[in-house]
Amino acid sequence: MSVPVMSETAPWVLIERRLPWPLLGLLVLAFGVVPLVGNDYWLSAILIPFLVLSLAGLGLNLLTGYTGQTSVGAAGFMAVGAFATYGFLLRLPEVGLPLALLGGGIISGLVGLLFGLPSSRIKGFYLMVTTLAAQFFLEWLFVKFPWFYNYGSSGTISAPNLSLLGYDLNTPVGRYLLTLVTVLLLTWVARNLVNSQTGRNWMAIRDMDTAAAVIGIPVARYKRLAFAVSSFYLGIAGALWAFAYLGTASAGSFDINRSFQILFIIIIGGMGSIAGNFVGAAFICLLPILLSHLGQALLGGAVDAGQLQNLQKIIFGVLIILFLIKEPEGLIRLLSNTRERLRHWPLRF
Amino acid sequence: MAFFLETLIGGLLAGTLYSLVAIGFVLIYKASGVFNFAQGSMLLFAALTFVSLHDQGVPFALALLLTVGVMVIGALLIERLVLRPLVNRSQITLFMATLGLSFIIEGLAQGLMGSQVRALDLGIDDVPLFVHGVMLSQFDLIAAGAAVVLVVVLALLFNKTRIGVSLRAVADDTTAALSIGINLNRIWQIVWAVAGCVGLVAGLLWGARQGVQFSLSLVVLKALPVLIIGGFTSIGGAIVGGLIVGASENLAEVYIGPLIGGGITPWFAYVLALAFLYIRPAGLFGERAIERV
Fold first, then answer.
1. CB < 8 Å from B in window 52-91 of A
2. Which of B41, B260, B2 is nearest to A143 (CA)?
């Protein structure tokens, strides 16, 4: 019988499938090397926002890239997560940081579910406008009601203290590790989710919801689920954005431009791809830095900051249109195409 | 009672300005199925161009003409560089392209013409008029008049001219329109140029109101609930929607606002639009699409 032979080879194949070498290398780099060699600037100003924005992109991608429901209210749900986590840390300090984060995510997910309710009746641009409504309403809510920011005069929230099991996480390395672990955990969950029945139903709805309904997928329920899960992810990303990156945040940190930024991450990185969020977020984080350095080097400070910002806007706009025209599946597709090409080099395919 | 009427009429007049912005959207959506997020930045660009020319000493009429020229050239460029390569792609893709477009236009407008607030004087005095004891703003009345004129002109263009008929043919069934020899690219150029001119009118009126500055492009966000209520495909709907939004926003701010902390105008129109959506998912005058697998 051939069964024993198979069971001898199967585990190795499985292990290889689960963790490819490049990913393992990246993990070693992220956990082992970066905390040792990374300086404060790199950790606090580049790596933490990169990781948080990747997570936010992932959340929006579950809704927009996988389920096909365009949302321009991502930052509103991030704000819910941030303010809810703050509420837990402030009013129930005994729950601890991980549970407060989780609670913030869950509350954000519930709010997302609420604003996703219209998705059972409307779709397309009409639905997009409901997400805009969520964005404006939530922004207003967190400005108008002082209860959310503990009656402070400036309307800002800052984390009381970030600590886990007695370790103080309020150092650049601590905040980096907190973000990294959270993001990796949630990415792993998301990857399994999109490969499950749920994910396949989402993609069926994205590709054609009428057809999905015909083959027996409960479309309305899965759309609502997508809203809830997406907002859960965005909420946790928002809490990390507020406490691990900014330190002190207000409703203004989650305005509509943040929503657009996250939408751009998934367009540029790749819709309907997990790794694409990381590529897109890296691009969005690094491009402004690159541009300002280029501006300094080429023009020697002759251009003022305002003009540089306008230039940056134009470049972002051009890139978005170029990507939509040339590579609708984003940078991640571009990378995999390049890899294929290199594998066959010098032959063409 | 006089106060209620004042609030109501003030809201209705402000609503005509919302309608003006919304009409630009409807034009483009009808003819090409594109939800043009860049309408707000087109509005800003047009108003900024006009103010810059006017400040240079160019007379009013000439500056208006030149700005129209700029908007037409812009429409030609947009059609050639953005829309034509994206033909036959999903509506969401096209929407995102216009999002990118709005970034380009905003960057260009502010890069070329500065980002400080510019005053715009159209030569209309904003004096209060009293009609039966109700205070009205003369400026708002003239703005509403301009909106009415614009709508009549557009209605004539759509219903009485050859171009208008082909526009409606494209809106009705793009493939059928192509098969009888209507030049789709030409139609898109025309529609975007007309939308640019509507944006110019709206930009001038809004700009005279609050100064020509970046926040002008945010007017676009005000127009969205108007579109939801009126439907994306109906010019008449845009007008009615604008009036409903303007009036109810004003009334809500005065009568409901104080109860829940005030400052509710940014989102009230959206909530109103959501309420409408629950009752009529395609807006008041929108066409209900029938879907087939």
1. 68, 70
2. B260
Is residue A157 within 8 A of residue A86, CB to CB? The reply is: yes
Q: Domain count for chain B, please give it.
A: 1
CATH number for position A295: 1.10.3470
Residue B33, number of CB atoms within 10 A of its CB? 16
CA trace torsion B141, B142, B145, B146 (10° rounding): -140
Q: Using only C-alpha atoms, what is the Rg of chain A?
A: 21
Predicted model pTM: 0.84
Task: In whole angstroms, give the CA distance from residue B7 to residue B207.
Answer: 22
B281–A126 C-beta distance less than 8 A:
yes
Q: Quote the domain boundaries for residue A145.
A: 40-244+253-344
Contact present, A158 and B247 (Cβ < 8 Å): no
Write the pLDDT tens digit of every residue in A277-322. Answer: 999 999 888 888 887 787 777 776 666 777 778 888 888 889 889 8
Nearest-Cα residue of chain A relative to residue B218? A256
B83 and B34 in contact (C-beta within 8 Å)?
yes
Structurally, chain A folds into a number of domains equal to: 1
* Cβ contact A125–B35 (<8 Å): yes
| Inside any domain, residue B238 | no
Give the nearest partner residue to B103 out of A124, A132, A317, using CB atoms. A317
One-letter identity of residue B47: A
pLDDT at B292: 64
The answer on pLDDT for A223 being more than 50 is yes
Supply the ipTM of this predicted assembly.
0.82
- Flag whether B209 is in a domain: yes
**Nearest-angstrom CA–CA distance, A137 and A76:** 8
List, as one string, the DSSP characters of A272-340: T-HHHHHHHHHHHHHHHHHHHHHHHHHHTT-S-HHHHHHHHHHHHHHHHHHHHHH-TTHHHHHHHHHHH
Domain residues for the domain of B48 are: 2-216
Say whether B273 and A307 touch across the interface (CB within 8 A): no
Long-range contact list for A85-93, CB < 8 A, 24+ apart? A85/A235, A85/A239, A85/A242, A85/A243, A86/A148, A86/A149, A86/A150, A86/A157, A86/A159, A86/A239, A86/A242, A86/A243, A87/A148, A89/A159, A89/A160, A90/A150, A90/A160, A93/A160
User: CA-to-CA distance for A68 and A280, rounded, in angstroms?
Assistant: 18
Residue of A nearest to B275 (CA): A118
- Comparing CB atoms, the residue among A211, A311, A325 nearest residue B293 is A211
The answer as to whether B285 is a domain residue is no
Q: Does A220 touch chain B (CB under 8 A)?
A: no
